[in-house]
Amino acid sequence: MTTLIVIQLILAIALVILVLLQGSDNEGLGLGGGTFGGMMSARGSANLLSRLTAITATLFMVMSVVLTITASVGSDKNVLESLPSMNEEESVPEQPSIPE
Fold first, then answer.
1. What is the DSSP letter of 40?
2. What is the tens place of the pLDDT at every residue in 21-69?
3. From its phi and psi, is residue 67 left (phi > 0), alpha (psi between -120 and 50) or beta?
4. In the 8-state DSSP scheme, what is residue 41?
5. What is the model's pTM?
């Protein structure tokens, strides 16, 4: 379980970094107009970053579902059953008393 959480954390950090690296219309934190040619041209890096972001986001969502399933397998209660029960007597507030 700890390994899955560490993988989820790494995927979350990678997803944030990949989103921040992508260029916007006014080139926010993007790589800019790359003069590297080939794969690292402006268009090539945008395609690469878009694909990596989509893959990372998909892995993040799959890991979220896997973590949810593994956490619920060990428990026979669902979330609503695990909440503390409220008695009807406790839900009615007491009337304030007037100090003497």
1. G
2. 887 654 545 555 544 444 555 555 668 888 999 999 999 999 999 998 8
3. alpha
4. B
5. 0.58
